[in-house]
Design goal:
By secondary structure, the protein is an alpha+beta fold. 24% of the residues lie in helices and 16% in strands.
Length: 241
């Protein structure tokens, strides 16, 4: 019988050659499915900080899962620079920035404590980009449509930061199990272009993931800032949005 301590030590020494999972987390259900898959060891958890060479695995579509006590990771560090966080449902969103923002103050560093969430702001895409996308005619109607289209993956991030052209978004989800000190985190990275082009699948769109029954302990209502919307799919299964 394997010794759990030696197994954990072996996992900690393992060198990552690919991300634990690749895709896009659109809904709360997607994050819960990843946590459930990690609980069943279908998706490997990160059990230590990534080495510098392993940070090269952080690309659009990379998804990482870790538990604080098991990994010893209190602050996820990726070596990139990010905007302050914004709330999107049960997620926090960050947008990759250049070294300094337009006002001359440093962008949020990856090892900094997570900043307090900002209130919802204006349109994510800079107005100049909107004008170009609409042939020079940026109307209120097109702005509303653009906001609705971008919200699932850009949230309410504004152009107050000097965003990196073609840079990534970081979307994080955290959950502490009831009556325990176990805090689980999911960290995902993606680009707007990859999501719009459909290059990244969601867990809930994949049959093997969608068939997983999410553990009741992960569905405790105290976990969520926004209670997931429950829907019954055409297959009769419960979905959490």
């Amino acid at each position: 019988m394997d010794d759990p301590a030696s197994t954990q030590a072996s996992e900690a020494q393992q060198q990552w050659t690919e991300p634990p999972w690749v895709g896009f987390l659109e809904t709360t259900e997607d994050a819960l499915l990843i946590l459930e898959a990690a609980r069943r060891r279908l998706v490997p958890r990160v059990t230590r900080r990534l080495a510098d060479r392993e940070r090269k695995l952080i690309n659009s579509g990379s998804v990482f899962v870790f538990e604080e006590e098991e990994s010893g990771i209190k602050r996820w560090a990726d070596g990139l620079l990010w905007s302050p966080s914004r709330i999107l449902g049960n997620f926090l969103l960050y947008r990759e920035t250049n070294k300094r923002n337009p006002y001359g103050t440093p962008a949020t560093r990856p090892e900094d404590p997570t900043p307090a969430p900002y209130p919802s702001g204006a349109l994510s895409r800079p107005r100049d980009d909107l004008t170009a996308a609409t042939g020079g005619h940026s109307t209120a109607g097109s702005s509303r449509l653009d906001r609705a289209r971008e919200r699932p993956f850009l949230g309410s991030l504004t152009n107050s930061q000097m965003f990196k052209e073609g840079g990534m978004m970081k979307k994080t989800f955290s959950l502490t199990l009831p009556n325990t000190t176990q805090t689980h985190h999911v960290v995902s990275y993606y680009t707007e272009a990859d999501v719009e082009a459909g290059r990244l699948r969601t867990p809930s769109s994949l049959p093997d993931f969608a068939a997983l029954e999410i553990s009741p302990e992960l569905l405790d209502k105290t976990h969520f800032r926004v209670q997931p919307r429950v829907e019954i799919g055409e297959d009769g299964r419960v979905r959490f949005r």
